[in-house]
Amino acid sequence: MSKGKLIVYSGPSGVGKGTLRETITSVPEFKLKFSVSWTTRPIREGEVDSVHYHFVTKEQFKKAIAQDKFLEWEKYADNYYGTPLAPVLEAMENGDNILLEIEVKGQKQVLTKIPDAITIFILPPHIDVLRNRLSSRNTENELTLETRINIAELEIEEAKENNRYKHFIVNVDFETAKKELRDLIESELL
Questions:
Q1: pLDDT tens digits for 158-182?
Q2: pTM given for the model
């Protein structure tokens, strides 16, 4: 049995990562498993614990950091997010391909541990499009929205620096981005 590959999948909040992710994790021949991250942020309407995230307390998260149990972790908008290491390594050893949906800073951490990871960054066509998408969610107040936009601008700039990501997909419209992502994953895995 061949060892599975790791795909690091990033992009700013509101760019459509989750919706795009669902279209590729359902393709059986990709043998692609989504790594469920831990987070300390509150659960949103429609989310399911252990499906979208493992929702934990800050105390639980900090204890796992102290025990070096994460492949990567980050504090973002006053909440912690992280990828537990053991399930990722176990799945790859079993021949599964793993998809990590993580922030740019987390990508740096992953590449120090797994340098041959496949890296993909999803971009908005323009920052104003991203602002409109985030605003239409009605999940954040104006201050949080502006914080997310500022973070998004920094993430995009950082992702483009030094060729840190191998692949970029601009999500102008869902169908085109979906096809580009599927074709890319197919070329990398099959």
A1: 999 877 899 999 999 999 999 999 9
A2: 0.84
> Residue 6 burial by CB count (10 A; 0-12/13-18/19+): exposed, middle or buried?
buried
The token pair that represents 79 in the structure block = 């909440």
The predicted-structure confidence for 139-164, as pLDDT tens digits, reads as follows: 778 888 888 899 999 999 999 987 78
Give the C-alpha separation, 97 to 31, whole Å. Answer: 6
CB 156 within 8 A of CB 104: no
Residues 116 and 108: their CA atoms lie apart, in Å, by 12
């869902």: which residue's tokens? 174
Q: Where in the chain does DSSP place strands (E)? A: 6-10, 32-34, 38-39, 54-55, 70-76, 79-84, 97-101, 118-123, 167-170
Token output for 189 = 């895995």
| Class of 6-189 in CATH | alpha beta
**Pairing between β-strand 79-84 and β-strand 54-55 as defined by DSSP bridges:** unpaired
Question: What are 33-49's pLDDT values in tens digits?
Answer: 888 999 999 999 999 99
